[in-house]
Amino acid sequence: MKPHVYILFYKPFGVLSQFTHEGAHQSLADFGPFPPRVYPVGRLDADSEGLLLLTDDNEVKHRFTDPKFAHSRTYVAQVERIPEKHALKLLREGVVVDHKKTKQATVRLLDNDPVLPPRSIPIRYRKNVPTAWLEITLREGRNRQVRKMTAAIGHPTLRLVRIKMGGLALEGLQPGEWKILPKV
């Protein structure tokens, strides 16, 4: 039996989390060649960046995507304005997104900007509107969840980067780079 393949990929801004092209967006196919039969575990929307796991191991895919396993996903999010304590508390306790309350999350206002590579298309900058960075760890994965959560508390997300999935971390990779892992 051939061993399974596990790839950590730093998905750049503007790239789809799939191998087929849609419109003018790049796809994963533009960053290979990847080994045959690997597919992304979960998704990041085109406007989000960061860690994407690619594998041909269906058991690992199931473990990372089935809600009953509640594995953690950690993001850093640049938001408009500086959230006050009550807004951070709302994020931690859960906010209503698409008519359903989110599960509790770990949320931390960062004292310093995270060290990230520049984005290919810079975020919009407004001289009179400060920004802040949050580190958010979720144990559920709904469509555009972090963006919807921060918008629900009045702090829209400007930049979103997934930095961890379970025990896997983005460290050491630049946008568009990938590395093969011995196992997951």
Describe the main β-sheet briefly: 9 strands, mixed
Classify the fold: give the CATH topology of the largest domain. Alpha-Beta Plaits
Contiguous helical run count: 3
SSE string: EEEHEHEEEEHEEE
Tally of DSSP β-strands: 11
Number of domains: 2
Descriptive report:
This protein is of the alpha+beta class and 184 residues long. It has two domains: 75 residues, Pseudouridine synthase I, catalytic domain, N-terminal subdomain (Alpha-Beta Plaits, 2-Layer Sandwich); 96 residues, Alpha-Beta Plaits (2-Layer Sandwich). Strands 1, 2, 3, 4, 7, 8, 9, 10 and 11 form a nine-stranded mixed beta sheet that branches. Strands 5-6 form a two-stranded antiparallel ribbon. It starts with 5 loop residues before the first strand and ends with a strand.
Short note summarizing the structure:
With 184 residues, this protein is an alpha+beta fold. It has three helices and eleven strands. The mean pLDDT is 92.
Give descriptors for this structure.
single chain, Alpha-Beta Plaits, alpha+beta, 2 domains, 11 strands, 3 helices, two-stranded antiparallel ribbon, 9-stranded mixed sheet, 14% helix, 184 residues
What's the topology here?
Layout: E1 6-11, E2 39-41, E3 49-55, H1 58-65, E4 73-80, H2 85-93, E5 96-97, E6 100-101, E7 106-109, E8 131-138, H3 145-152, E9 157-165, E10 168-169, E11 178-181
Parallel strand pairs: 3-9
Antiparallel strand pairs: 1-3, 1-11, 2-3, 4-8, 4-9, 5-6, 7-8, 9-10
